[in-house]
Amino acid sequence: MSAEISRPKQVLIAGGGIGGIATALALQRQGIESVVFERASQLRDGGAGLHIWTNGMLALDYLGVADQVAKIAPAQSVCHFTTSTGRIIGKYPVGRFVERYGQPTVAIGRSDLHGILRDAVTVPIVTGAEVTGYTEHADGVSLHFADGTSEEGDLLIGADGVRSAIRGQLLGPQPPDYTGYIAWRGHAKMTPEEFPPGTFQALFGPGNRFTYYDIAPGVVHWMSVANGPAGGRDEGTPEQTLNMLRARHAGWTAPVENILDATTPESILRGDVVDRRPDSVWGQGRVTLLGDAAHAVSFNIGQGACLAIEDALVLAGHLAAPGATVTRALRAYEAERQERTRPMQLLAHRIGAIGALQNPAAIWLRDRVLKLVWNRTFHTAEHEHVAYATRWASGTAANAT
Ligand SMILES: Cc1cc2nc3c(=O)[nH]c(=O)nc-3n(C[C@H](O)[C@H](O)[C@H](O)COP(=O)(O)OP(=O)(O)OC[C@H]3O[C@@H](n4cnc5c(N)ncnc54)[C@H](O)[C@@H]3O)c2cc1C
Fold first, then answer.
1. Which atom of ligand 1 is nearest the CA belonging to 166?
2. What residue ranges line ligand 1, CB within 6 angstroms?
3. What is the largest CA-CA distance in the chain?
4. Bridge partner list, 275
5. How far is 43 from 68, CA to CA, in rounded Å?
6. Residues 202-222: pLDDT tens digits?
7. Secondary element (H or E) of residue 295
8. Pair 58, 70: CB distance under 8 Å
């Protein structure tokens, strides 16, 4: 039986991605000390782009960094969903969120967001620290590293991503599920005349998709998604990979081919897309999971990083609540966040499956059904996904529902 303490003195965080760093910042805001252990030798996130929906921005605002994000991240005005030939399936007028909730939906380079969070954190972030497992004691947790050393803390948060070592020890070695499709991502340099700022577009073809949006003035981030077996790699040069993608999207509606023509081949990243089914257990004793380690959600709703930031706020809130004990706070956090993340994981998986359809009759039906249910779906997404975060808002946003 654990000897419980009410307010933790030292929190161990495994993983220095967006979730881990946001957690350190959320704890810092509550006056709780933590230390982050990151496997990579340098603290930086990948070169890709992220959509940060208004709920993510409200959470970032609570952490005190939304203004910095908004300064460099283009606000999105409308998300278009079309067929590969440009026939409109539906539109999300996301630009209106700023009036309703007080924060825009933005797009930003992943490393830019990571950098803003990291610069706001004052607690130690130890790099080159590969976590291998933990041991729980009556009054704390020892975190073990690949070099044979250990660190002690009152509790442990596994924010070490979709292939989390902490999760592996807690729940057993379960690899994530391969969705059946692969994502290629890259950056193109385009002027505002060539690419209207604040535009997000997702185009659905047979068994493949293309999405694009601007993540900084003159920088367009794109993603090409295609069905295929897991574990493949692109042989040849980055230029050859780009040519393969040009061939895949030849004849797609403008500006797809222009974006690929303006792409720096070396910016292209390839990755198998994985996710997980919702789990009902995220922790035990003084250990819990957060972000992708807890609820890996595919990119299809653009919410994985936003949810990780929300997790951080909820977890820090429970740990700082008057009279809370560590284990009660962790279980309360898990229960609250599972209710939020479970439907999002399932929705993202379903959208991915719909996007991966290859059969022409199924695609014909998909495009028409989506068009019919579009307005209701958007209304639901706004109220269920975005409005949730008004709990952290002040002023106009606090009154929006
Ligand atoms: C193609 C794609 C597009 C996406 N688009 C969006 C989007 O538009 N909007 C959005 O909100 N989300 C998006 N996401 C999801 C988002 O990227 C993730 O949900 C988010 O990065 C999760 O953050 P995390 O900190 O939990 O995990 P990660 O970002 O994976 O960070 C985990 C960290 O832990 C470290 N680590 C791993 N193992 C160890 C170990 N053993 N010891 C120490 N450190 C370790 C890693 O090096 C890493 O730094 C997208 C994802 C993909 C793949």
1. 41
2. 14-20, 37-40, 50-51, 129-131, 159-161, 165, 183, 291-293, 299, 302-306, 308
3. 66
4. 177
5. 19
6. 999 999 999 999 999 999 999
7. helix 292-295
8. no
Q: Which residue has the tokens 């921005």?
A: 57
Rounded to whole angstroms, the Cα distance separating 88 from 50 reads 23
Overall residue count recorded for the chain in this entry: 401
d(C-alpha 251, C-alpha 260), whole Å: 12
**Nearest CA residue ID for atom 24, ligand 1:** 19
**Separation of 386 CA from ligand 1 center, angstroms?**
21
Ligand 1 atom closest to 162 (CA): 30
SS3 14: strand
pTM of the complete model beyond 0.90:
yes
Which residue, judged by its Cα, is nearest atom 35 of ligand 1?
A: 15
Nearest in space to 299 (alpha carbons), one of 51, 11, 34: 51
pLDDT along the chain (401 residues), means of 10: 71 98 97 97 77 97 97 94 93 92 96 96 97 96 98 98 98 96 96 91 94 95 97 95 98 96 95 97 98 97 97 98 94 98 96 93 91 85 90 62 44
Residue 77, both tokens: 């005005």
Q: Tokens 């390839």 — which residue?
A: 270
d(CA 276, CA 256): 31
Could you give the CA distance from residue 330 to residue 311 in angstroms, rounded to a whole number?
11
CA angle 225/226/230 to nearest 5° reads 105
Q: Which atom of ligand 1 is nearest to the CA of 165?
A: 41
How much is the pLDDT for 44?
66
Atom of ligand 1 nearest to the CA of 132: 41
Torsion on CA atoms 89, 195, 98, 108, rounded to nearest 10: 100
Radius of gyration of the chain (CA): 21
Q: If you ran DSSP here, which 8-state letter would residue 263 be given?
A: B
Beta strands 155-158 and 11-14 are parallel
pLDDT at residue 42 in the model: 79
DSSP 25-76: HHHHHTT--EEEE-SSSS----S-EEEE-HHHHHHHHHTT-HHHHHHHSPBP
| Domains of the chain by start residue, with CATH | 11-73+105-176+276-354 (3.50.50.60)
Q: Report residue 83 as tokens.
A: 């067929």
Q: Which residue has the tokens 């292209």?
A: 268
